[in-house]
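User: Okay, second chain of the day. Same drill as before: sequence in, structure tokens out.
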Amino acid sequence: MTFEPLPLTVLVRTRSRVATPLTRLLDALGVATEPAAGNLTVCVCDEGDEPAPEAGACVVLAATDDAFDRARRTVGARNPTLDHPGQGLMPPEGHIATVAAEVATSAALLQALAVVAGDRPGPARIDVEHLALHIIMPVVSALSVGVMRSPVRPPSRITYPLGIVPCADGEVGAYQAVPTEWPRFCAMIGRDDLVEAHPTVGSRRENGAAIWEAAAPWFRARPVDEVVRIAQDAGLPYAALLPLAALPGSPYLHRRGAITTGPAGELAPGAPYRVEHATVDTAPHSRRDALREALAAALPRPVAGPLSGLVVVEVTQHWAGPLAARFLADYGALVIKCEPAGGDFWRVTGNLRGEGISWTFEPINLGKGSMTMDLRDPADRALLEALLGACDIRIENLSQGARDRAGLAFPDVAARSPNVIAVSLPGYETEGPLAALRGMGWSFEVASGYASALGGGTAANSGYPYGDPIGAITAFLAVLRELARRRLGGGEGAALLDIGQVAALSYTLVETLRTGERGPALTTLDDALAEGRTEPSWPLERVVTGSGRPMDHPGPLVPLAGQPLRNRAPAFDEHGEAVREAVANALEGSGS
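Assistant: Same drill. Structure tokens below.
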């Protein structure tokens, strides 16, 4: 797709390997890279360099060879004590450079928004190692509370929840990461007896080899397409393995605009997401201002920042959607997290027994409000509709059917908030032939070509998984670009930001294909520990959880001068009663 030009110039003065993907991304997003009369100007320069004198703000990029080496050591590449590649594999260098380009663009947009608001922002600093920490954020927090003392063990070998497995004519990414998916998997392979034989996640992991032995005949008797079709029909997030070399010919990626072909037929990156603008013939909610004031009174006070004044309604679980909303909270947005009646299941995944906190949930959800909703309840459905009428930004990462049933589809949300920025994080796309496909982080790696880029020639999952944080970073970039369009005079109206997570991940590999990169020599987290280097060089931010336990996390994605410390993550349904009462009072007497 084509983005209309913004009255913004970002001068690319970095000499690092980030320069090429940064220039290409800015061009794809309609941001000028040469001086233009009337444009607001931001400069991206290398650490130690002076920004261009005409720049109103600057972004300092620490992306030297040494910084890339630190990033690899920070994440770790492969644990040699295990017999399969893919145990915490570091991604290709072109991928790191492309993600750094996305974050540098986000930093430039944040600086532009600050200038438009009348601020004179100090430099924003982007460090490649800091970026690597964000990609493994929950692991950082797990290490800090002492629940993980060695590299993460991803399901790259054939064990529960299976990983990348052989079929009759190829390989499939097969995962049962959510507890409700386990009985579906057993029914699919005709082994209902396994449900009771291995009732807990711990039991399934301990007996992964036996589970694969039971499942192997079913997989090996069927071709890839049939396995994926049956699994998707059963509600399982399976995906066919896409070889890295097949990216240039992918109809899905071309249709999405994630990859393009240059004038000489060369492969080039397009844009990592799609945007759809719409003018809605409806009026804002009659009690919009009252609702916003009520929410501000009922929720924790947000930090000051360039996104102050924005209200975000988040209906998400797990990693990508919540992290995208947390990034917005980091820069001043007021975020209300709407969880299902049982809570976001990541509250339980990394739960610290007896403390009521989770090392997976905590770092992803700092600075938000939290309430629970049962959207089958008419009262809760009406409450959500009122919140949507009050918000500036809606974020969801639901399946297509769940999104539609909840009234969160773009037309429904725009009808309640005609200037809304609606952020969707589907696996593939919100509308189109692949919209109904289910997915999760590891299956996104398989479907995007990412798993094929890892493992030294053997397809493997990264171990973290990268699909989730890359989706969140892309969503953050998309929101900032849309806000810049509006605040630099581009008008209003509703906007759908469609962050197809598979396309976003594939996009980051185009630079690797373009350069013919073979990948760095593998280094390991174990090696870094053996050298006596137990912590990353980038300072971590320490927060105190609701139970009083100290926990580390990487801090804001884009550090800004004078950035305040983050708030803690919300307790389960911490603000539910206050929000319900505040919304009811705001609506009282309005006839709503």
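The radius of gyration is 23 Å.

User: Thanks, on to the next one.
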